[in-house]
Amino acid sequence: MHIIGILPLAALLAGIMILVAPRLLNIIVAIYLIFIGLAGLFPHFFNRLAGA
Question: Please, which domain of life does this record's source organism belong to (predicted)?
Answer without folding.
Answer: Bacteria
